[in-house]
Every structure is written in structure tokens, then in C-alpha cells.
Amino acid sequence: MGLSMSKILEATCEDGIVTALGVEVQDVEILSEGVGASSGVLILDGDKAYYVAKTSPDLKTTLEKLSDALGSISSALSAIDGAGHLIAATAGVPGPPVASGDISSLNSSKGELDDLLEELK
Amino acid sequence: MRILCQHGFHKFIPRQPGDLSVFASVYGLTLVRKEDYYTFERLADLEKYSLEGLAYSNLVANSNYEGQPWEVMKENGFVYNILTGLLVLKSTIKIQIDPPVLKRYLLSETPLIQAGSKNKFSQTVLSYDGEFLFDTMQFRLNGVEYE
């Protein structure tokens, strides 16, 4: 596919049907899964037509979900780790937090994901 | 002045200053500049792509294609109708031409040949290249491409 003289149009795709400029595009090759609704571009090159979905919205959603999940895990672990537990029945004193290092690592990963979300192109 | 017809798309390329204005006024044509040639107003505005089902000038395109306007016209089976100033389906042209052979050239009876016309052998004229001769006001065909 030579892109030097191609025509590129805004397009959408849903259920494998590509639409551009208000018309359903026939005989178009979808260069992505094409299952979920997406926006992207239609590339016309000679008698060939290709649809390419913009994947950054999918990536953004994935990162947001992952960041939220890490936040939830970190909070849960903090609550459990900080609640204390008896290290011996006779001593009657709670043991120190044992997962603080792992929790800190989770929070660090979450921070990095949040930074990536901010800079997502 | 050179007159070139590519798949029903006309190009006028003046050799001398004044060629175009004389030609246009004699034959009552309105021609506009496009890149390094002159053409009819409707042809000058044509897109370099077509999408099946989408308007292409005054017609609806029947194929997806990206390329020069004359390539898009060929792909869709369109030619420019000189009389109406509209794009039409090539198959609707019902004109027969029979340009006489003069030495090694064909001499057209009219300054422009309608693309889509047929010769006596039922061959469809799609493209041609020729020279309009101002001294005799005749159109000398240097080459004709049949479909």
C-alpha cells in the first residue's frame, strides 16, 4: 500500500461496517478487529480501501482500569496490613506491618500508570 | 493549441498567448486554469477520489477509487458531456463519428470530440490528443485511444 498519493478520510466502524462521509463503504479491508464500535480513518489508494481504527481510546481505557485496580488492591492491602494481628497468644501484642514494601511498590506502579495516562498521545 | 482528452476529461494547453481566448470566444466556451492546463469549470472542481454511493460532481459514484480526476472518471464510467456541461455515464453517449483520414492524421469536423462516441467500427473513443489549427480553424487528431 503506497501512501504517498492516498486519500485519507475520517471514518467509523461498527459490526464490521465502515462509514465515511455518510455512506457505507463497500469492499473495504478493516485493518483491526472491527468488532467494537470505533472511530478511525479510511484510506483510499487506487482501487483499494482500508480502514484503520484509532486505538488510543482503547489504550486509555485500559490504563485507567489498571490504575484503578492497582489503587483498590493497594488500599485493601493497607487496611489488612495496618489492622495488626497477634504474633503470639501469650504476648498479646500486634505484629508490625509486613507488606508495606509491596504496597509501596503497588503505589509506585500506579503513579507511573497515571503519569502515562497524562502523557498519552 | 493542444487539446487533450483523457477518459472524457478535457485539457487545453495554449501554444501562443491569445490562443485560449480566441478559441473560447469562437466556440462559446468557459475555460478555467487548473495546474498547467485549462479545462471546463466542472472538471476543474473534481475530487481526486470517489466513494461508491457518494456524490461525484452531478452523479453518484459507483466505485471506490483514488487517483487523478480522469482516472476516477474512467473507473466510474463517467465522461464529460460537452453540450450539457455535466458528467454523464459513458454508456449514454449515442454519437457516431467518422473523422476522415488526411495524410497521416485524422481531421475532426468539430473542434472537440465527445468522449464515448463510437466510430464506424463501433469502437468507443475514450481519449484523444490533437492540435487545434488556428489558420484553418480545424482540429487535427494526432492520436485516438479506443476503449
What does this structure look like?
Helix content of chain A is 38%, strand content 25%. With 121 residues, chain A is of the alpha+beta class. Chain A folds into 2 domains: 7-53, no CATH class; 56-118. Chain A has a 6-stranded mixed sheet with strand order 3-2-1-5-6-4, with no helix packed on it. The longest helix of chain A is centred in the middle third of the chain and has 27 residues, at 56-82. In chain B, 14% of the residues lie in helices and 39% in strands. Chain B is built from 3 helices and 14 strands. In chain B, strands 2-1-13-14-12-11 form a 6-stranded antiparallel sheet, with helices on one face. In chain B, strand 6 (55-56) and strand 7 form a beta hairpin. The longest helix of chain B is centred in the first third of the chain and has 9 residues, at 19-27. Chain B is globular, with a radius of gyration of 15 Å. The chains are: A alpha+beta (121), B mainly beta (147).
| Helicity of chain B, as a percent range | 10-25%
Spatially, the strands of the biggest sheet of chain B line up as 2-1-13-14-12-11
Largest interface: A-B, 18 and 12 residues
Distance between the termini of chain B: 25 Å
Estimated radius of gyration of chain A: 25 Å
How many alpha or pi helices of chain A? 2
